[in-house]
Each structure stands twice: as structure tokens, then as C-alpha cells.
Amino acid sequence: MKDIVLLNVRRLAEAYIRQVDKDNTLIACSNLLQLSYKKGLLHKNPFDEEGNLNIDTVIKESDLTNLGKRLFDDLADKWFAYTDRTQKYDNITMLEKYFNNLNNG
Known about the structure:
This protein is mainly alpha-helical. The chain is built from four helices and two strands, in the order E-H-H-E-H-H.
């Protein structure tokens, strides 16, 4: 069975031309992955000892816990659609709301 890549932080950020868009993408990824790790969706921590996101983070299906396999893809889709639409990359309350709705749904 193929181990599908769900999120490649570096490639996603490099897809943008403007530096501000790259920076905002990294903020959105950081918030998504921080919540995902904290809520037990990921097996490994995508952050370094200082709490900075590892730019080379690649999330594959095998990196997800059972809960992560159930929720991560939909959570990422909802979060990136929201941040693209609103430009609110730090609205952790909305990210947590998406998580809770998916987890309880």
C-alpha cells in the first residue's frame, strides 16, 4: 500500500511567489500542525526544541494516529479553505471549532 503525502510544508509555501504569502502559509501550517499534534492526530512532533515548525515537515498517512486518519485530511481542508477565504491565519478558535465538529460528528 502506498504511503500518501497529505501535507508537504516546504512545497506548499514555495508554491507562492510573494514572501508575504509564503509567510502566511507557514503560519497556517504551523497552527494546523500544532493543534494536530496537541490533539493526538500525529505520531511525531513537527516542531523543534524551541517550538519552531520544521520547514521540511511532510505528513504522510503513516504519520497519523487512528484519530488522525479519521480527522486530519478534513481538518486541513477546512482550515486552509478558511484561511484562504478570510486571511485569518492565527484564528486558533476557528481551528479548534473545526476539530471539535469533526471529532464529535
